[in-house]
Amino acid sequence: MGQIVRCPLLGVPCSKRITVEEKTIFLAEAEEPEYDRQRRSKAVNEAIGNQYKIRSALDEKGINAFTCKTCEIIQSSAYGIADITQNNANVLLELGMMLALGKPTIILLKDGHELQLNLPSDVKAIEIIPFGEYLDIIEPLRNVVGKLPPPVSASIPIEDIEKIQPQLAEELKNMGAGVVREFGEGIRQAKLETISLRDEKKDMPAELGEKLGTLDKKLDDLAKLGFTTDANTAFLRGNFYYNQGRYSEALAAYSLSLDFNADDPTALYNRGTTYYKLGSYEEALDDYNHSLELRPNHPATLYSRGSVYDELGRHEEALADYNRSLEHRPNHPDTLCNRGTTYDELGMHEEALADYNKSLELRPDYPTALCNRGTIYAKLGRHEEALADYNKSLELRPDYPTTLYDRGITYAKLGRHEEALADCVRSLELKPDDPATLYNLACLFSLRRKTKDAIDYLERAIEKNGKYRQMAKTDEDLDHIRDDIRFKKLTNSA
Asked: What is the pTM of this model?
């Protein structure tokens, strides 16, 4: 909520972002005499009970005078109480700060001290509570606290600075506009105006990356002073974060862009794509749906929505989106590859093979399409062709766990168990505790008559996914360990 915009000590703009804690009261009090402080504390706590947290500069370690930390505590408190009885300079300064910030403030003043301290006529406390002994403040303070007005609302620093020093405010605005301009030019140089669901990180010169990072931080600092950017800058910052894999920050930036224009189809597409990367598929689907209402035949959005449908197991809807996307972009290798995967999920292996072939005609060195075509060849019993595709895919993308696993299974079907074992072990190193890999390692060790290893892997596979308990009961690869007592216990066959 509220934020002071100029340092009371130096007169310069304060860049700290302050959050007001609504159930907090700052108590401005003198340290001496100690017995007064103890009585005051007891009375205030009795009056307020557990409704509010009381903060005092005297409780903060190392703070003995008015400091930046004290100012921050005052700003973050929703209300104030000031005991001005001792006419203490620090207390009066803290009172001035609370009143200047518009904090609803209660003044405590001991009887007989009115003549010693003449408050200016424009001091507007919500209540001045006179007292003889600190016990006297309990009831009136309880009544006032029960009727406290809402905390002060947030201020807009640059607007406040404008009232005090228009030239400084103008300089800040011009500085912000310059940073926005420079950031936009950097994004264009880095070719980050667009993102794609399948884009790898775009490399950029280190100097340009550092420059964009510095400008991004400057935009954050300016935001703390109340400088607001436009929808396009928020959108471009989202692209910058997305390219760096900083998806949560990208999500916030795209959401800010959509606050300016909720019907921007590109920002909706980008936010949907970021949700997809975060595994939030329902949210991604909502954004893609909205984007397609505004731009019905956009091929990239149709392709991306198809990917979400696949993740959700809605393969018929995915297929419809890929078909529509390919009507407008018929030679897009990613869409063909994805449609091939959907055909595979639907058991349409020949159609899947045709799509992978076409995708690879368009992009021969496409590791995903090679791996996927290898899987189809394996399902069609064409193991040597499958092996050739896996080998080429791994040349292009070494140590990819899915391809290593698939090649391992193919080696096993060809009776090449040593190579199968090596691939599955490496795949498990890269993707630990994958249940399918654990299960197939159990099968491979069983075929090699290594009972203990086979059962250890089978146990881990069943822990991760109970379906392997049932599979193990009839899998011929596990015949060599079937009589072991541990196997019987694991499969409930004892």
From this structure: 0.67
